[in-house]
Amino acid sequence: MSPEPAFAFADPAAQQVAYDSLLFAQRRPLHRLVAGWLEEAHGDDLAPCYGLLAHHWQQADEPGRAIEYLEKAGQEALRAGAYDEAEGYFEASLELNARSAVLSNGFYEQGTADWVAAREYALARLEEELPPELTYHNLWHTRDDVLPAAQRLAAVAGLGEEERRLLETAAVYHDLGCISDFWIT
Any idea where the domains of the chain sit in the sequence? Predict the structure, then answer.
């Protein structure tokens, strides 16, 4: 069986110019094809390709698969003692998706702890009358605390973009409803 023909640019600058001339919508399917080919061609031994696979899946807008390979590349780099390289892979994984398998348990625990603390604080505050000047403070709290908490919860729960927006909207309405109920009564 003859090897498949390989094509390469003789000049890296020419390669970059050709690549830059492609629209992002044109690049994604190409990266998807390359990643699929790499998986098929190296199916028995993907370890040397983890970093390259992560790059192509990320450029193909496939974050789940990119994260999988970023974490595998990071683990391989750790085993090889390439700590800076491992750190780069893990940071890229975290940037790509806060629900990374490496830290998902930590985010879950953090979210649970935040919820328990918020519940205890809310119960304590319900026993007091809310001064009018705190209404605006609570509106800022909604923006600064409630929305990020809803975003963390959405990430931990693995919600999609639409479900995440709905959760954020519900969290804002809930907070505004609590402020309104407390203000009116």
Answer: 12-96, 104-184
